[in-house]
Each structure stands twice: as structure tokens, then as C-alpha cells.
Amino acid sequence: MSAYLNQEIISDSKFDSLTRSFVKNKLNYGVFETMRIDNSHGVHLKERHLARLIRGVKSIQLESKQFHNLDLGLLADYFKADSAFFKARLNDDELQSAVLRYQIVLDENNPNKIIRMLKARSVKSLGSSKLKIKICQTVLPTDLLKQGRKDIDRRTYDKATKELDKNFYDGILCDKQGHVIEGIKTNIFSIKDNNLFTPSLSQGGVAGIRRQIFIQRAQEAGINVIIGPLHYSNLMRMDAVFLTNSVIGVVKVDYILRPDRKRSVNVFKPESDGFQNIVALNILKNNHLYKRIKS
Predict the structure, then answer these.
(1) Are 198 and 224 part of one and the same domain?
(2) Which of 52, 116, 181, 233 has its CA 20 to 30 A from that of 150?
(3) How far apart are CA 108 and CA 29, in angstroms?
């Protein structure tokens, strides 16, 4: 797949090296979005992704006084133009869909300049095997200034990723007290009876777009949504555990490995009241992986 810097093609390795250099430079700030795109509809949930991108840039403006005059309208225009640009590239390459990483980098030395970087990869199937996740030992630091934004500084997440082998789809990050915050690349939900639990973002973590949609659908269906602290040990007692993000939609978790155990625990209870309530209320409608959820 392709990578671009301000719509000029670059190699994947150049994209990665530039990102690392931006992260190391204390005068640079950046946010990114990971989105599905196809050659018929373009970027999925485009307006939601744009809104979160702008919120991320606004949080950078709070962190650094250098960017107060940055034109957010221009940022929105760039995003829409770049989305259309890559959709056209899909058609040129005769591809139906891709996963797109779109990132914005700002430099205090040139505060009115918006650097746009785009990198695409193919859409990977989760297959039919049981989905496993691991509670990572890497601790997610509390950073209220970055709360909710997808920052290009992914060093903590990269460290956690090194704890995983090929058998694990994702790793779960916790705070120092063992409270679940998020996955390396997902948000996490769990169900017990008629209650849907998901961690608060008050201690950090990304405000996932699919997370917002899932919470909204659950509340509209009359499910009691509890947003707050949840220790990782309590995940083992739930009726079902789900992961969400903009690429996979919503998927169920079959097994979780705790950091103090050698064997994974089966956390999916398809006959439980909690899971049956979710299925009966149909809050998973329009999710492209609904069949996987039910199986």
C-alpha cells in the first residue's frame, strides 16, 4: 500500500521514520485517525473522525500557546480533500477498501503550517479462530492534557505490543491500580446482567468513535451503561467482553490472559442473561461483524 506526505508519495519506511522524528522533537505535536475507506462510500464515519481530529488539535492548542491562530477550517478542508484524494488512489489501484492512518503534525517553529501524513494498509480478516487478549504489564500513564486524543506518540502502546505474541489480537492497558483503561488499538466493554460496563476516560485513553456509538445504542435500548473504574480481575466474572474500534466494529472476546496467570480464561458465556439481553435488544445492528458476535 501507499504512504503520502502532503499528497506527495513517500515510502512506508519514510513515513515511519518521519513519525519517530516528530515524536522525539519536543517542539512537534501530532494527532491521527485510523479509518476504514472504500471506493464507493469513501471514509466510513468521516464526520465523526473529522470532529475527533479537530478536538485533538484543540487539545494541542491548550497544551502549546503557539498554535492559537491555527485555522481549523483549513484543517477540515485538508481532511476532506485528502480523503477524496486517497479514494481516487483506491480506484486507480483497483482496490475496494483499505485501512487509512491519517495524521496531522504541528511544529512550534512554524505554527501556522499543517503537515498531513497518510498511510494505508490492507483490511485484515479476523478469521474464525477464538479471539484472545492479554492484560499487559505496561502501565498507561495518566496524562490529562492528552485525555481522549489519538496522539502520534505511541511509545507506551509500542512497549505493550512487545508483550504480545501472534496468538493475541490485542493487549489491555491499565493504570497503576490495575483499573482497565483501553486496549492497545481498541476500547473495551463488558456485560453483566443488564449492565454494560466501560472504563472512564478521566485517567487517559482514546475516545473511540465506535465506543461512542455502542454506548449510545445501548442507552437507547434501555441498557444501564456504567462508565467508571473496572479492575481487570472483574473482567473474568463478566457474561461477555467486547472490543470496539472504527476498523473492526464490535467483536466479542473469547479468552483473556491475566498477567499473574499462565493460562487464558474463557470469558464468553453465550447462554448468560447478560449476553442474551444484548442480542435480544439488537444494539449490534448494522455492525459488519454481527455474525461473529453471535457465534
Answers:
(1) yes
(2) 233
(3) 8
Helix (H, G, I), strand (E, B) or coil at 286: coil
Which residues span the domain enclosing 260? 132-294
Q: In this predicted structure, what is the pLDDT of residue 120?
A: 93
In a domain, 250, yes or no: yes
- Mean pLDDT by runs of 10 across the 295 residues of the chain is 92 96 96 94 95 96 93 97 93 85 97 96 81 95 79 95 95 94 95 89 88 89 90 90 91 90 82 70 50 42
Give me the DSSP letters along 159-190. HHHTT--TT-SEEEEE-TT-BEEEESS-EEEE
| Residue 71 neighbours by CB distance under 10 Å | 11
What DSSP state is assigned to residue 113?
Answer: E
The DSSP symbol for 70 reads -
126 lies in some domain:
no
